Structures
1.
Amino acid sequence: MGVVATDEWLEKYYDQPEKMCKMAKPEVKDEHDFYRYLTQFGMYQPFRNGMRMLEGLKEKEVWKQLDIIYKKYRKKWNGTPVDIYVFPINQSNRFFMRQLKGRSGLSFSDKIFLFISDQLDEKDLEALFVHEYHHATRMTNYKKKPEDYTLLDSVIFEGFAEVAVLNSCGKAHTAYWTDFYSENQLKTYIEELYLPNFDITRKNVRHDELLFGGKNRIPTMLGYAVGYEISKGFIKSNQVTIVDTFTISSKEVMEKNSLFGS
């Protein structure tokens, strides 16, 4: 477990990202589908001169930096052991490069995929890792299968993870969506749009619409911002540490929350 030498993979198979997807997750039946899935979260698509970003990442010793960061939080949080796969981000996508500042990721209980630009500074790299590693550790400790997660579970996952970034790396390194909506706007959205839908599961198409936004007049990343607001309210109302957030249920977060007058 730890940081996988994907720099060496990329040197050999840059033009074959599907092959590396199969190497990272051999249990998937269709590596082409899995690669398409990862591109939704920012994984690069091969293009001419694309190796330049890889060279930039190697010059910054990103794999070495992440190994240090991983060991730090594994010890600090008694976190779950994971494999960490680092790939260049899709630099032709404005959303990934501008709004997300050249950093994105995807987590499973036993592995993390990080998609990054060679323009990231070390603190932004740490912030990305903290967010994704919080997910992996909460998944391991949360007594619920991912396929059974409700919309409430999903937004709380995002909220707690970004509060961990706030506490570990500072406000300057939190995601843009933490400031995109006012508190009053979020309260209105929660009451009118989210409370009636918090029980829907990931199998319902409405789940992803409300989590990610950007469709059917739902603002971009609204579910993430809602989760952050709710999580902050809960932590403010209770004596909670980041380690506590790995096991606290979503139901408890709602029941003991100043945001809802509890």
2.
Amino acid sequence: MANTSVIISGAGGRMGRTLLDLAIYDPQCSLEGLLEGEDRLSALQEWMCPRSSDPKELFALVPGVVVIDFTMPSVTLKIVEAALQQKNPLVTGTTGFTEEETRILEKAAEKIPILWSPNMSVGLNALLEILPGLTAMLGSDYDVEISEIHHKYKKDAPSGTAVKLADTLSRAKGWGPQEARRCCREGLIGERPEKEIGVQALRGGDLVGEHTVYFLGPGERIDVTHRAYSRETFAKGAVRAAKWLSRQKPGKMYTMGDLLYAQ
């Protein structure tokens, strides 16, 4: 397999540092640029490649190079704008997009290859492919609930992965993606309606990420849990996605599911 050239966005953050360590030692990757805020750039001087806080400036130096991005929606949208100009493919694990921001990503994906996944774990994405079948087999007698636990520094809640799980399970039950999601219960709320998927978010410590789907049926319960023990799990998935995306054409918003089925 030919080398894949990559740019790491958010290179000074926790995930960015993990991505740097993976990319620099991967014989199939070539690190071509770092993107980070002005206040963090000085801490990245050890890396002998172009560095900038301005995606337009950086991408002009390395057009067509795959960008791996784990930042925040406002930053990702600036990256998309610059990537469209220089034809840089984009792998992003950013979460918290509004519906309007998601549409901007989808429109950009018509012109440049974009893979977006709220969770880059190969195991979690395999689980997303399996859960609809389990939901269908269990049927309407089983209520579905989701819990997620993350470190205390996580800024959005519920997690993008929990939202993806809820939307996937809702569709499997024949409901709209947001129709049944309920993220808070408090007070005298009455009996649980049939058309509902509860999503509970817990925050604390340094836990990387844990998601559990509960199927609560008559006389039994099935728990399906995914635990991430290291950020390297997500970083490995993102690097794998970058290698795959470098060979794809624009035209749709790719997911990790597309990658898994292509193997």
3.
Amino acid sequence: MGLKEKLQSDLTEAIRSRNELVSGTIRMVLTAITNEEVAGKEARTLSDDEIITVLSREAKKRREAAEAFADAGRVDKAELEKSEGEVITAYLPKQFSDEELSALIEDAVAKSGASGPQDMGKVMGILKPQIAGKADGGKVSAAVKAALNK
């Protein structure tokens, strides 16, 4: 069963169990996937890797919205966004721990021969395929920048 089929199956189950948070979140995710499928000149079916990219983007939106609501003092809305983000995260591959991420970054720096911040693009080029859907790009970027500034 592909990721999209799993999402549709879980949506049906969430509707049956009247879980409004899960069903609403999965509906939004499926809508984002469908929008991605019909974007461009002709419709296509997304692969699981492309769906993971869409899920990562949606999870990031929820994290950023939760922070914005929390900063504005809207704790109720921040909690809702955080809960939606947790539902989406359940469909993403296991995220890298800080230690695993550090090891990947050290390896990429060594492979690229990077000597300073100006070589960040080389390091990120090596890391991008390895971290796709498994780590937040902003977090990785900050960690690479810190590693190159040592």
4.
Amino acid sequence: MKKIIIIAIIFLSIISLNSCKDFLDIQPMSQSIAISNTSADSLLFKTAGEVEAALGGIYGDFRNEYFSLDYFVNGDAQSDDAYAGADNPSNFQIDEYSIDATNSNVSRDWAYLYGTIGKANTVYNNVDAVPDLSADRKNQIKGEAAWIRAFMYFQAVQLWGDVPLQLTEVKTISIELLPEIYPILFPARSPMAEVFDQIVEDLEFALESVPSTASDKGFVTKGSANAMLAKVYATMQSPQWDKVLQYSDAVIGGGYSLLPDFDMLWNNENENSSEAIFEINYEGTSSSGNWGASMFRGLDWKKFNTPSNDLVAAYDAENDMVRKNSSIIFQDVTGSWSDPYWPQASFPFINKYRIFTSNSPQNYILIRLADILLLKAEALNANGDVSGAAVLVNQIRSRVNLPNTSAADQQAMRLAIEKERRLELAFEGHRWYDLKRTGRAIDVINNAKGPGGASLGYMLNENSLLWPIPQSELDKNTKLVQNTGY
């Protein structure tokens, strides 16, 4: 009876866990079936079609709520580039650095990321056993799943710091297997360094396994693997700038090029362009429409991620009208809603996402060449090559008709690159993470200016740089420990 009770508890725990419920394949309870059982009857994927569909399901997660909305709230509204906008209290907490462990965005983002990680684990760990699939295709599928898993862990480690490393899935429940099952279902947090090591391992495997090109930029390629490696090595607790240079150079030499006109990135006439490295593709149908675009633009209700006074002032101070006009549009919302930061007659919206129907065909570009060129500039400057960094910064500036940078020493160049990344990549989900990884978040955020140049009064501190572990996860898993300050 005790065995039955224990197994029942484990079973109920499995089906209740948000991070597991979408991907676990629970076999009939038996004390004789082991996790490693690979007989024909126990194969998770019995045909090539089944595993291809499962891989498609992982890619499909790039169209979920995390990437349609929260990715940009977390990267932009959490920075000095945007206010939360709309009327969601959870978003207000994120914007104002007052998040608590019951914040609904925090818990759902944890569930989204670990849900996709679980799906990637299932494909990665089971594709080799599929009987009617070539060895090359199996390896490529594993590489794609590994890249996606790494991408999700990269999000998680930036948001929460130490996070659980879940790399396997439960296939069978039995009393004998409890010592193996329990750590999978209820893992402790792994140190950030270990998480980064796993991310690098997955990305390096992907680099060796995936093709150089694909039918569109929504699939993993060697370019996206190199780009992510450059970004990861720049974000580690101790950045490895030589590695950033290595992988940035691999991207730059991989056939990518800047579009001649900055606005071409956003006019919806140049999707999957030469500049895009990884891009979420939408067809504009009921099953493949980007509803997220309507969260940022439109006059029917007050939208999320209102461009900030501080960002508009930064564009104006630089006389950067090309990127300002491509990134922000001002419209009259008189009689629709009020706002503490902007007048109704001239209210700003994000202009990079311009088709804002409920089933929009608007693509999201998650990684593009300009990002990598500026990361390489950052690496060159960190290694003392200020003039080399200037060449790359000027390449970005020349496209938008700005003069060469005046930065002449390492510190000035560091700030010039920070500014250039802000103006170039606004509303693409990068700013908050850039400020964190460079150690500039507290100083920049606490000095952000609102209407008329007045202080916004933010009081960001070291504890607020990481999110709290969701209370719902702490309640389910006693091995999890809360972040300091929550």
